[in-house]
Each structure stands twice: as C-alpha cells, then as structure tokens.
Amino acid sequence: MAGILAWFWNERFWLPHNVTWADLKNTEEATFPQAEDLYLAFPLAFCIFMVRLIFERFVAKPCAIALNIQANGPQIAQPNAILEKVFTAITKHPDEKRLEGLSKQLDWDVRSIQRWFRQRRNQEKPSTLTRFCESMWRFSFYLYVFTYGVRFLKKTPWLWNTRHCWYNYPYQPLTTDLHYYYILELSFYWSLMFSQFTDIKRKDFGIMFLHHFVSVLLITFSYVNNMARVGTLVLCLHDSADALLEAAKMANYAKFQKMCDLLFVMFAMVFITTRLGIFPLWVLNTTLFESWEIVGPYPSWWVFNLLLLLIQGLNCFWSYLIVKIACKAVSKGKVSKDDRSDIESSSDEEDLEPPGKNPHTTTTTNGTGGTNGYLLTGPCSMDD
C-alpha cells in the first residue's frame, strides 16, 4: 500500500519541476490546499441531500400547491398478473407479435393491451409536482452558489487578469472563502452523483453521469495541485446559466408559458455565450497558453486541460440540443416537449387516440403533448 500511495502521489506528476509536497505544507504564515481537506465533502454532501429533502417538503411543495400544481400522477393501470409479468420481466414496449399473443391469451383486444402498457409506463413517471420541487431546489442552490461565486471573485485579482492564476504558482495561499466555495461545489456534485440514481430518470442519464463524474474529477484535481484560482473561474462561469434553466422549467410546470419561453431564451443566450464563447476564449486560453508561458507544462497540467476539453465537448453537445429546441420553438410558437423527457403523453389523451394509431407519434401535436411540455434540462455545472 505504501508503494501504491507513493506512486499515486508522485511529485513529478502532480507538481511543477523542483516543487515538492513538503513545500506546500501549511505553515503559520500561509495555508495551502491539502488532499485530506476533500474528505469534508462527503459528510457535507449528505447534509446537502438532507437539506434538499427538507426544502422540497416544506418550501417547494407548498409553493407548487399555491401555483395549483397537482400531486396526482397519471391514470393507474388496472391490476393484471400476466401483463405485469411481461412488463417487469420481458419488455415495456411489446411488439405486434407479442401483443397479438397476449390478446388471445387474455381475450382482450390489442388496443386495450396497448393502452394498459402505456398507462403502466406512465405510472413510473414522477408527477409534475415532483418535477417542480426538484427544479426549485436546484434553482435555489444554483442561484445561491452563483451569487456567492460572483461576490467572491469580484474581489480577486485573477478575475480581472487571468495571468494572476499562475503568478507564483503553486505557492498561492488558500483563503477561507476559496476553501468554502470549493468544498461546497464539490459536495453538491457528490450529492448529484448519488441522487441521480433516485432522481427523475432522463434519456441522457449516461451523459449526465459522465458530466458529474468529470466535474468531481476536475474540482478534486485542481484543488490537490492548487489550480483553485482558475477552478473558481470555471465553476462560476458554468453556474451562470443553470438557475435560468431551472426557473424556466418551474414556469413550464406552472403553465406560465410566456414566462417559460422568455426564461428559456435568456438561458439559451447565456449558456451559448458563456460555454461556447467566454469559456474557450477566456478560461481555456489561460489554462492552455498563459500557464504554459508562466509555469510550463507538466504531467498533471496535461490531464487538467484534457478534462477541461472534455467538458467543452459536452458543452458543444448541449448547445446543439438547445439550438434544436429553439428551432422547434420558433416553428411551433413556443418551447415544446423536452427531448430529454421520458413522458410519452398524458393518460387521458392516450385513451382518446383513434384505434390503430401509433401511440408514439401523438405526443406533441400541439407542442405540448398534454403535459405542457418539458424543457431541455441542460448541464449541471462545472457544469451540469
């Protein structure tokens, strides 16, 4: 184990030439980031998750009820042991051949079996109230952490001149505000990593999990080798659009369509400007070029920049989805159903379908699909 730890914490990988871990030990004159500080993130992540449960129950839920957002879910499928067994053990989307076999076995018409499977699938979807509470929690946290980041960064020299991220590196003291900001962000991303398995499931679950994982790596990595100054720029920049997105989703769930459209446009403009404009021209410029000039490259420098480039690749992917949603909104007159949403359509609408019509093509005939649409829920910061 000692050999493994010595290999993992190899100074020639983590630190610039002629710098050792002993040089970055805390003294009476200065405090530097220490790897063991990151253990604080785990109990704090649990606390954040508990605060979220309390917030959703005692703050978000009363707000949702005041906005007439109903807690009732879709229509419940009638109990049937045979269909339930097929649904849970074989397939949730039976093909035509299986539908015909079930029709003969149960003496039901195919149309009734299709309706049962649609109702059963929708049964597993969370209610609009649950979605609203989740969005309100994220909106509140993103707004707080972004506000804190702006108030902290406006007092720092590296916000106004990014070369200060590398002057005297890595001998840059760790301030209390910077330590709090970093640990809070890391704790939130750890809470997202775990809660993602219990939160509303969406089609890009894998991509979002990758995003949260890379975010945790970036925060941890930049803290350990004291790239925290540029890390704060990355965090604050990526937090800038998230509150707008969650606000747009809340307006959507509350059926304030005009407000939803306005907030979505604001979100799209901020997201694309910050992620495709400011981030590469400002942050990547300093991590790739200014740091090369002032400090010079070393192994962990390459890893850090590769992770930032991976984040930028995800930014490009989500920007494509946002533009796609915006184009649909222009053609339909409002923001339409979320490409990430797994809701097919409301149960009431499904029951009114004409026989023989494909149920998967009737969800967005008027831009809402009976569910008032679900916005593109974009990245969480360091993110997404």
TrEMBL record:
Top-level taxon in the UniProt lineage: Eukaryota
Pfam families assigned to the protein according to its UniProt record, in alphabetical order: Homeodomain, TRAM_LAG1_CLN8
Region (Disordered): 338-384
DNA-binding region in chain numbering: 85-128
Entry's transmembrane regions: 38-55, 180-198, 205-224, 260-282, 302-323
Cellular location(s): Endoplasmic reticulum membrane; Nucleus
Keyword entries, A-Z: DNA-binding, Endoplasmic reticulum, Homeobox, Lipid biosynthesis, Lipid metabolism, Membrane, Nucleus, Transferase, Transmembrane, Transmembrane helix
This protein's GO CC annotations: endoplasmic reticulum membrane; nucleus
GO molecular function: DNA binding; sphingosine N-acyltransferase activity
CDD domains in the cross-refs: homeodomain
Functional pathway: Lipid metabolism; sphingolipid metabolism; Sphingolipid metabolism
Protein's name according to its UniProt entry: Ceramide synthase 6
Organism: Marmota monax
